[in-house]
Amino acid sequence: MISEDVYRKVHPKEYLKRFIDKDVRPDGRAVSTARYLRLTIGSINTAVGSALVRLGNTTVLAGVNATLIRPNNANPDKGIVEVSVELLPTASGESRNVRGEEAVVLAEFLRTLIIPHIDVSTLCVEADKLVWCLSLTVYCIDHDGNLEDSVVLAAVAALRNVRLPTVRMVDGDEGGDIENGIENTRMIDADNEAEEGNESIMAVVSSKRTESLELDNFPLTVSFQLFCEKALIDPSAEEEVVCVSRVTFIMKPTGDMRGILKEGGHILSPKLYNSCLAQSKERVKEYMKKLQAGS
User: Fold this and answer.
1) Which residues on adjacent β-strands are paired with residue 233?
2) Rg of the chain's alpha carbons, rounded to an integer?
3) By C-alpha distance, which of 185, 169, 164 is closest to 120?
4) Cα separation of 181 and 81, whole Å?
5) Is 48 helix (H, G, I), strand (E, B) or coil?
6) Ordered mean pLDDT values, 10 residues apiece, the chain (295 residues)
7) 3-state SS class at 284
8) Which end of the chain is more exposed for a tag (fewer CB within 10 A), N or C?
9) Alpha-carbon distance 131 to 72, whole Å?
10) Can you say how many angstroms the Cα of residue 182 is from the centroid of all Cα atoms in its chain?
């Protein structure tokens, strides 16, 4: 007779099936029960926006840094939003290459999902001269499943938390007075812009951050692993390894569905679809309570 731990490792699919057949999961949750969610907003003092998500044993930290730069010639009146994801060694036992590949996939997922809902024209200080560049970095600290939902929620919460200082352009004479202590200043050197020559741009940057980011109708996601004709909401890492099919509902803050992503060949029946959609609506309500409580 082999021990339960050995059986779990040697026969992971059969082990999980034993539980799912009884409508319970190895960690004690019901099939339709998500893990406890903790959301801390504004957790990084040095960032203009940040959020920490703890979903069971999965931990994700998102931070937004802001830099004043010259705009892109193709979009002189629009700011820039950059997105990156890092899987720390503590988050996964996978090799560095595998972690890197997963981070690239998650970053692209975030870009596709979130950036279209940011009005980058509001990041323009003065067309052709100065715009904000926001760098959103999401750190996956601990990975025990469902990184997708955790990363999206952390990113949305951090962006909603963004507060930028007010900025106004000044000429050289006024800039000299300001540098002597009237106000805080920041110099933007544009000498690498060939068409502008060695021009420098001066702007007055307020010491207080008050300008929020316009994030219109932002998306939220609720994911399920499909196994034995059942949908496991908020899957653990163990469940993700065993279950080859996954479905993610992309939701609006109102609870309406925006879209759906599906991986794997498991059939999503109408009954299962309706069940997942109903659970997603309830999960989004919980997301919104956490987001609004931390605003």
Assistant:
1) 224
2) 23
3) 164
4) 32
5) coil
6) 77 89 94 97 94 97 95 94 91 58 93 95 92 96 96 98 88 51 49 47 76 88 95 96 94 96 88 97 97 82
7) helix
8) N
9) 9
10) 38
Q: In the structure encoding, which two tokens stand for residue 285, read together?
A: 């309500």
Q: How long is the chain?
A: 295
Beta bridge partners of 64: 49, 136
Q: How far is CA 269 from CA 238, 262, 272, 279, in A?
A: 24, 13, 5, 15
Question: What amino acid occupies position 206?
Answer: S
Phi, psi of 18 (to 5 degrees): -55, -40
Structure tokens at 7: 């059986």
pLDDT digits (tens, 9 = 90+) for 8-56: 787 789 889 999 999 999 999 999 999 999 999 998 999 999 999 999 9
For the chain, list the strands marked E by DSSP: 37-41, 49-55, 58-69, 80-87, 124-126, 130-142, 163-170, 185-189, 200-212, 220-227, 230-233, 245-251, 257-263
What is the torsion angle, in degrees rounded to the nearest 10, for the CA atoms of residue 109, residue 115, residue 117 and residue 118? 160
**What domains appear along the chain, each with residue ranges and CATH number?**
20-162+213-293 (3.30.230.70), 168-207 (no CATH)
Q: In this structure, which amino acid lies at residue 140?
A: C
Among 91, 5, 98, 21, smallest CA distance to 55 is for: 91
Q: What is the pTM of this model?
A: 0.89
